[in-house]
Amino acid sequence: MRIYFAGPLFTPYERSFIDQCAAQLRSEGFEVFVPHEIPLPDPEYLANLTKEQFNTIFAGTIQMPMVDERVAIFNEVGRVLVEKYQGGYHNFVRSCSPRLYDQGNGLLERLVTEFPRFNDVSDYHGNKVQIFKLAQLGIWGMHLALSPRGHWKLEDASELTAFADYIVPVGLRVMGIFEYAKELEDQINNLQEVKRDSDAEVELRASSIYCIALLTEEINKRRPGMTPLLMPQLDFRFWKSYHATHWPHHLTPASRALRIWCSVTGAPAILNMGFGVESVSGANRVPFPPTRRIAFSIGDFKRLSFEQLQ
Known about the structure:
mainly alpha; three-stranded parallel β-sheet; two-stranded antiparallel sheet; globular
């Protein structure tokens, strides 16, 4: 059995705790994979990462799809950080205004410009549709993690939209808020690919953002005097409730989000590095990659004995 062990790394204590747990597991004879032991966060390593190294890190029982695209993304991000920001993403963040939009110097504006991988834009009948799913999600996550500690805060978090992926449309469809054209309904139910940047894919993503915006506005009208609900918070309610539903979702190959699934339980593992494919589907969800890994959170691990792991 190979155990995948990950958790928060925002403090030296958290990193040390994971290291100690991994060492104890290994002393008991378990094979343990700890993501932060691989120097992926090192921009110089990323800038020079080869396809062979990538395949070794993400080895499984199948060949991970879109490997060339993923390696190119790692290389690009690493090169930019090394050449312009002394190898530190924090240097890039500090060089930006702590706002999404600030006359071109906002963090979101700079992120999608200097790191083209984040420039999530589609053409829709000659119109440029800016989705920026992963860029916004990364900024929101950073805000949630760092603002309570006083290290960094996004000053215009209310400008964030929903994170247009493949789960929110499922929730909207199940709740009867979305109604698909018969052709699209059949396409999704029969697990047929919805092409990237097709009318259907752009409409699904853009309509999800619009619906979440309208719902957020209406909910806030019913909560006068309370802290306004933000669109990412409502987005999470949909994701949390419907990411494991058996209702099928649309399938679109993309390099937006890497989700590694535990082949033992079918539950999502803890790694989401922002490089992957949105191509697992409802009742037919397949572990990706299908290796024998088990994902634990720190809290889960504290409640497990070594005997239970066997």
